[in-house]
Specification:
Elements (H helix, E strand, L loop, with lengths): L4 E7 L4 H15 L5 E5 L4 H9 L3 E5 L3 H14 L4 E5 L4 H6 L1 H7 L7 E6 L1 H4 L4 H18 L10 E4 L17 H11 L4 E6 L12 H23 L6
Parallel strand pairs: 1-2, 1-4, 2-3, 5-7
Antiparallel strand pairs: 4-6, 5-6
Helix pairs in contact: 7-9, 8-9
């Protein structure tokens, strides 16, 4: 499924290692042959030049996680695409082995929101503290949406008719914008389904030190804020 589709992503290469990782994964993403908007958060000039030189990429710039994602989504909307596929930029394994398979498996006529979800095997490969926080997020999403699955892996496709409901979110929502949209889709009657696979943790993302655990706590807070905001929002006023 590539008809009427636009990919939205973000980037911020904070050091040489991150730049190398993102260059490799984004080259793979470009192989999908779908238009991509990538909003960068302040990487080096050489990395920005790389983005501009990558086929199918439209490059924007903004500061902050949600402002970046929001601008990429807005650019996708300007294209007139009916479906938007959001992803983080560092999913090399997913881009190379699973993305085309997922897009081909989706029935566009019936698509509301489709998440890439880790299987139990894939989920178990991630650091233990991350598993704990993301299990909590998954349980909170299940409470509202009613489906037991992994909501935290990252990539997902959604119907662009959902985009106007994102306007209520402020810049501090962070990662909470994702479960916010999942819950809103469910409340509006869109299908919320998943494409499950053995998406494992990359070796360079298996850190479980104090700073990483604090980051996961922050991420947990943002996700819970997002899903609770969606669960309590008056949809008739939107």
């Amino acid at each position: 499924m590539k008809t009427d589709l636009f990919i939205a992503t973000i980037s911020w290469a904070r050091n040489e290692h991150e730049e190398k990782v993102l260059r490799t994964s984004l080259k793979q993403l470009a192989e999908v042959d779908v238009p991509v908007c990538i909003t960068d958060g302040g990487s080096t000039a050489s990395f920005i030049e790389f983005l501009h030189s990558t086929p199918h990429f439209i490059v924007r710039q903004a500061k902050g996680l949600w402002p970046q994602a929001r601008l990429s989504i807005a650019t996708a909307m300007e294209s007139g695409a009916q479906y938007i596929f959001y992803t983080e930029p560092d999913k090399l394994q997913f881009f190379s082995k699973h993305l085309k398979q997922m897009l081909d498996a989706i029935e566009i006529e019936n698509a509301g929101l489709v998440l890439a979800s880790r299987s139990a095997k894939g989920f178990s490969s991630f650091p233990s503290f991350q598993q704990m926080t993301e299990t909590t997020i998954n349980n909170c999403c299940k409470e509202i949406i009613g489906k037991e699955m992994d909501y935290c892996y990252g990539p997902f496709l959604f119907n662009s008719n959902l985009v106007p409901y994102l306007k209520v979110l402020d810049d501090t929502i962070g990662w909470g914008w994702r479960p916010f949209l999942f819950a809103i889709a469910h409340r509006l009657g869109f299908s919320v389904t998943n494409f499950e696979g053995d998406f494992t943790c990359p070796p360079d993302q298996q850190e479980d030190d104090e700073s990483e655990r604090i980051y996961r706590m922050k991420q947990l807070t943002q996700n819970i804020n997002g899903v609770t905001q969606a669960a309590t929002m008056n949809l008739q006023q939107q």
